[in-house]
Design brief:
Rossmann fold; alpha/beta; 41% helix; EC 4.2.3.3; 7 helices
Length: 151
């Protein structure tokens, strides 16, 4: 297997998403981590982005709401190497109309070797890692052979 590397810079581009039932928990977590979040570039889907911007008094690049394509926008940004990390407080107890989009987004995080936090504990572990405060070299599969194949 051929691999390649890319640098996740010290100033990370972080996409933040939360299902409705998880928004209060995400906002509480974001407030507790506001100083570190302020050192990074934030992207948020729909209402989550708006609420984060208001709560943190910090700019958040706002995308569409998840069900309207925001999850797919984040996925596209991951594939284009424009997102370095995903914080996604998703609700495992409620069916979502865009569940296939959510699954596709999480799949892209694995494909492109993007760190993902799906709840407060995993977000805390990511944010307390020494790697949050430095450049990080991520090693991932080199997909150029797959992309260059002839049909």
């Amino acid at each position: 297997m051929i691999t390649e590397s890319r640098t996740i810079p010290v100033k990370k581009r972080i996409a933040i998403v939360a299902h409705d039932n998880r928004k209060p928990e995400l906002l509480d977590w974001a407030w507790a981590n506001r100083e570190l979040l302020a050192k990074n570039e934030l992207y948020g889907t729909g209402t989550t982005g708006k609420l984060l911007e208001e709560k943190l008094n910090q700019p958040v690049q706002r995308l569409l709401s998840g069900p309207l394509g925001g999850d797919q926008q984040v996925g596209g940004m991951i594939a284009e190497e424009k997102i370095d990390m995903l914080i996604f407080f998703w609700d495992p107890m409620s069916a979502q109309p865009h569940d296939p989009d959510v699954k596709a987004l999480l799949r892209l995080c694995v494909v492109w070797n993007i760190p993902v936090a799906s709840n407060r504990a995993s977000a805390d572990f990511l944010f307390t890692s020494p790697l949050m405060h430095q450049d990080y070299t991520a090693v991932q599969i080199d997909y150029s052979t797959y992309l260059d194949r002839k049909f």
